[in-house]
Description:
By secondary structure, this protein is an alpha+beta fold. Helices cover about 50% and strands about 15% of the residues. It contains ten helices and ten strands. It is globular, with a radius of gyration of 21 Å. Flavin-adenine dinucleotide binds near residues 134, 201, 357 and 360.
Amino acid sequence: MKFEFSEEEELLRKQVxxxxxxxxxxxxxxxxxxxxxxxxxxxxxxxxxxxxxELFVPEEYGGRGIKSVCLCIVREELSKFSSVADGxxxxxxxxxxxxxxxxxxxxxxxxxPRVARGQVLASFAMSEPNAGSDLAAIQxxxxxxxxxxxxxxxxxxxxxxxxxxxxxxFAKTDPSKGRQGISAFIVERGTEGVEVGKxxxxxxxxxxxxxxxxxxxxxxxxxxxGDGWAIGLGTLDLMRVTVGAEVLGKAQxxxxxxxxxxxxxxxxxxxxxxxxxxxxxxxDMATSIEAARWIVYHAAxxxxxxxxxxxxxYASMAKLFATEAASRVIDExxxxxxxxxxxxxxxxxxxxxxxxLPRLYEGTSEIQRLTIFREMxxxx
Length: 380
Ligand SMILES: Cc1cc2nc3c(=O)[nH]c(=O)nc-3n(C[C@H](O)[C@H](O)[C@H](O)COP(=O)(O)OP(=O)(O)OC[C@H]3O[C@@H](n4cnc5c(N)ncnc54)[C@H](O)[C@@H]3O)c2cc1C
């Protein structure tokens, strides 16, 4: 068995780690930074300067090609230092997948080179007040009228919509066809009929998007009418495994802080780390991280290899296992910190809140389990 990172992948990790430590961590401090355009723009520039956005674009449009392992490396390293940077990266991946896969040539030429240069931020607007896990239940509509699609509806949890340049919006062009009637559109920031609102979260900020007779040129339809369902599932199939990498980075960061704290903190006359209970905790944390690292990178590797007909099951397993393992690891890191672990400004406190969210987005843990079971039943 040969399963190791290439020299290029190791270099990418080193590059992103250095960027994260030296530039991104000092730029971003709090959860709310994602809602501050000046901070987002500095983070975006720093990431663009290192060519990170090129990883979402095929070579013929100015990118470096899309490799799941590379996306995981970037997310693992970014998330250790800045959830804002990781969020920008991930949401772009979610938002631009459809154009990459089924976009028309014109659309690709219009957006992809700019995406590669780091000049475009995207938001992925699928969920609605009455449709999260059950995406086929979305109620937003799009009607073709005089060369324009007219969009109506409401989106929730549209990450980054407050600062994004484009929103990838899912709406039904033919509600009678259920999921086959869903289409995806690019809606540019500032389009008339778009109203963006805020949702305060336990970590960070999310956005609502209200669409009221919002007219977009018919050229903004991604692919063909009815392609929305496949675009949505394909996007999640690519990005879910990277959520595993995101939480892996957070778990590793929490573990390192807990390790250091256990060596510094003296209780009853001895450093915390000298107590076997602490040693056991650190050993269990390291074991969970190691297991999560393997399941995540193995899933990414299988996807890149392209030898299996489907890798959906592995992506869901990676997301499910890594998000649940990271939650346990970070909970223990907080415990090792004692009261200081729940004090604002202490890194593990922020990580504790942040790590709760990935068990919900891009499919809850329950939806991952259903997906895994469905794939097993089909024989994949
Ligand atoms: C921080 C954050 C960021 C997000 N970012 C985005 C984004 O950028 N774009 C976007 O479109 N959406 C985004 N979402 C939305 C996210 O994808 C949904 O919240 C998620 O899919 C769950 O949907 P829901 O909240 O409607 O819960 P529901 O679907 O109402 O589920 C409620 C509960 O029921 C369970 N459940 C649902 N169906 C079943 C079933 N069949 N069997 C057993 N249990 C079930 C769920 O697991 C959950 O525990 C984000 C959410 C969060 C929290």
